[in-house]
Amino acid sequence: MHPAYSVILFTTASGAGYGLLALLCLVGISHGEASSLVFGLTSMVIALGLITIGLLSSTFHLGHPERAWRALSQWRSSWLSREGVLAVVTYVPALLFGVVWSGLYPAPDLIKPLAVVTGVLALLTVMSTGKIYATLKTIRAWHNPWTIWVYLTFALATGATILAAVTSVFGNFPAFLVWFSSAWLLVALIVKLGYWRSIDAAPRDLTMGDATGLGRLGQVGQWELPHSAPNYVQKEMGYAVARKHAAKLRRLVIAALVLAILLMLAALAVPHAALLSMALALFASVVQRWLFFAEAQHVVTLFYGAKAA
Amino acid sequence: MTSLPPPSAKKLGLVIDLDTCVGCQACATSCKEWNTQGYSAPLTDFNAYGSDPSGVWLNRVHGYEVKEQGQEQSRIVHFPRSCLHCEEPACVTVCPTGASYKRAEDGIVLVNPETCIGCKLCSWACPYGAREYDQSHGVMKKCTLCVDRIYNDNLEEEDRLPACVKACPTSARHFGDLGDPDSKVSQLVAERGGYDLLPEMGYKPVNKYLPPRARRDATTSRAEALPKPDGSAFDRLFQWADKVLSPKKAVARANEIDHSGRLEG
């Protein structure tokens, strides 16, 4: 599948934003009182900023960005529409939570209920992003039970490192946060390894003979393409540039995540190491998301010469 | 609405005969010609006369080579590929805007070019590569089953067929109601063992493909079955007459191999 940069930026940026938002809600629930004004506002602006940048960038790959509002209408059948609706709805409690949790408006009783609603909606939004891909039967590497968990754990892991990094800048840096972020990075790594293991083990049991139905006659091979230059279907669904580099890029993701964990642990001694850890975690998130697209093979490639899918 | 309508009794679609298709591309070009000026027009081309042409086509004709067991020579099968107007099309249900829809009355799957946002998700959901994105208009394009021909009162009745069906010189394309078991197309499917593409995907395509017939080889070809001269008196009489009546020069000329490449004139 062609990796559209706007979609990769959208899913990683908004994922990190929703992860951070959900964790800020967790902070709100566990503390039950307003944070310091500057910390509360800074972290909320970063979370909502990442979400907003992501959502805006997701409209860049549309043919008609001005019609994007129409995507909110088909939530009955479409996960993309559900994601849009959840994303928009989440803003309402998130902004209210930001206002009371940062202490802009004193209403301590509202912190916990708003945090619960916001946190649940944020996680549901990330899950629905994963669902968009996981429900496509045409792409074996996406139609996989691990897909949603990859989206969710990377959102929380990158969100946690941002939270740790922001906290380290503000001084008061609890050791708990180091263990918490490291744990999420580890979980994301384990889930991603599980995902790769699963897609590598899945049999590619459809052939050109199955796709064309000509397998009933004998062995099928491609004789002539319908067109002399690549068409949309080949460019969008037949993207194969990264596949040959997949093993290297996977090692890069693993190395970046391991290094991010080590740097996060180093933040116990030098708090600012959390900033580097965050940068590496975000880098790993982008590379693995790019691979998620580039490694995925679409079943339509069978009509265009792929031996199996 | 991208939720699917209840299954319609009428299921309009195509039956494509892979035995008689000769891969002439007439269906693809007539499709392009009709649809570039009709509904959701035009079908854009880029660099159409250059070395790297690209553009939107709603019908693509592949060529496959099939090696049958026990056959020395493989056979070529021409394979037109377009929207199959599935009974349960995922391309419709994934659409976030409602631009993609399945018509309740006849099952035709269409895209409304006025509301499509060009997110391309429908093309990802289709296993058949039936949808092509129009870069210049920012919307998705697909086969309409020539909805603007088949119900068009301004056309003569005999022309109320999809352009591809109308154009096919070998009658390899058939159009009709596959929901009606008594229709010509349904009977053709039953008779020839018409099949679905990728039934395991579960989208229940309406269009059907008729498999190539068993091929005739040296042992089964009808030419072999033609009567041979049996050496009877009649046969010998005709052979003698043939020899006497053929001018000697003409016989000699016919036996020479002409390398000029020109037709005799």
Automatic annotation (TrEMBL), chain A:
One of the record's GO cellular component terms: plasma membrane
Gene Ontology biological process terms from the UniProt entry: anaerobic electron transport chain
GO molecular function ontology, one term from the record: dimethyl sulfoxide reductase activity
Membrane-spanning residues: 7-31, 37-63, 84-104, 110-134, 146-170, 176-195, 252-269
InterPro entries, A to Z: DmsC
Signal peptide (residue range): none
Superkingdom per UniProt: Bacteria
The protein, known as: Dimethyl sulfoxide reductase anchor subunit
Organism: Aestuariivirga litoralis
From TrEMBL, chain B:
Region annotated Disordered, chain positions: 210-230
InterPro entries according to UniProt: 4Fe4S_Fe-S-bd (IPR017896), 4Fe4S_Fe_S_CS (IPR017900), ET_IronSulfur_Cluster-Binding (IPR050954)
GO terms, molecular function: 4 iron, 4 sulfur cluster binding; metal ion binding
Domain 4Fe-4S ferredoxin-type per the UniProt entry, residue ranges: 12-42, 74-105, 107-136
Gene3D superfamilies: 3.30.70.20
Record CDD domains: PsrB
Source species, domain of life: Bacteria
Protein name from the UniProt record: Ferredoxin
Keywords: 4Fe-4S, Iron, Iron-sulfur, Metal-binding
Species this protein is from: Aestuariivirga litoralis
Cited Pfam families: Fer4_11, Fer4_4
